[in-house]
Every structure is written in structure tokens, then in C-alpha cells.
Specification:
Helices cover 21% and strands 49% of the residues. The chain has two helices and seven strands; from the N terminus they run H-E-E-E-E-E-H-E-E. It has a seven-stranded antiparallel beta sheet, with helices on one face. The radius of gyration is 24 Å and the shape is elongated.
Length: 163
């Protein structure tokens, strides 16, 4: 039997070619992506315990990119009128299609103190408008996670206490 060996110069060329292909694949993942947009589209009550109020936040995630956004978990923090209000996480898995959207439900906890503080703020301020900031992170994406921030206002009907 005769054994064929690849000449050293050819091995070096093949190694360089393989390294170049790996580098190109890595650069493709660094293509700038538009930030995802997340809107608070609904709030529903959930059963709570003791002095805790539980809510289900419905979030519409909008992906303005050319590739689907796969995620494996989400965390959120909701501030109302500049004060911390609710926090929550979900291990929900899913995908937001390219140039598409998906609605994700995240359960959050609200302390009784936060509720009282917000009610007092609305009662003393005379305004039925609540401004909020929603911050969060979609975990497990191909790029290690996607953070988001959303701001908005909610108008309460006259005579209604906040959440």
C-alpha cells in the first residue's frame, strides 16, 4: 500500500481557507440589526398571594429585521410614574418571524406598597394619566440576548384608581 500525504503548502492553504470561511460566518452574525420594538398591549389580573398582586402583561414584540428572532425566556421591569411597579420573568420559548410580530404574556408581581403609592400619586396629582417605562430582555437569542425599552402613557377613566 502506498500512502498519499498532502503537501505542507496545500495543508496550509486548506487551513487558511477554512479559517476564512469561519471568520465570514462569524461576521455574518455581526450584521447590524434594527432594535426590536416592544409595546405593552394588555394587562390582565392573575391570582396572587397575601399582599401581592399578580398581573399578566401582554407584550407585542415587533421584529424589523431580515432574520427570525428565536428566544428562550424573557424578563421585564415596569416603572409607573417614575417609580418601580412590577417585575416578572417567563421561560416561554418562541420565535418572532422576520419582519413580523408576536404577542408574549409575562406574569409580573406588584407589591401592595407599589399599588398604594400609585393610588396616592393619582389621587394627589389630579391626573388620570399614567406614564410607564417597560424595560426587559429576550434571552437565548443567537446573539446572546436582546434588550428593549418601551415608554408610553395610559389614560385611566375618570374616578378609577390605577391598576
Amino acid at each position: 500500500m502506498t500512502e498519499t500525504r498532502t503537501p505542507p503548502s496545500r495543508r496550509a492553504a486548506l487551513s487558511a481557507l477554512a479559517g476564512g470561511l469561519i471568520a465570514l460566518a462569524g461576521c455574518a452574525s455581526l450584521v447590524p440589526r434594527e432594535p426590536v420594538r416592544v409595546n405593552l398591549v394588555g394587562v390582565e389580573p392573575l391570582p396572587g398571594e397575601g399582599l401581592e398582586v399578580r398581573l399578566a402583561l401582554k407584550l407585542r414584540v415587533i421584529n424589523p429585521n431580515e432574520a427570525a428572532l428565536d428566544f428562550d425566556g424573557i424578563s421585564v421591569a415596569l416603572d409607573v410614574r417614575g417609580k418601580p411597579f412590577a417585575n416578572g420573568v417567563s421561560s416561554e420559548r418562541g420565535s418572532v418571524p422576520r419582519f413580523g410580530e408576536a404577542v408574549i404574556t409575562v406574569p409580573v408581581s406588584v407589591s401592595a406598597l407599589s399599588l398604594v403609592r400609585q393610588a396616592m400619586g393619582v389621587a394627589s396629582g389630579g391626573s388620570n394619566r399614567l406614564d410607564y417605562v417597560l424595560k426587559g430582555r429576550l434571552a437565548g437569542t443567537a446573539i446572546g440576548g436582546v434588550s428593549f425599552e418601551s415608554r408610553g402613557e395610559v389614560d385611566l377613566p375618570k374616578g378609577v384608581a390605577p391598576l
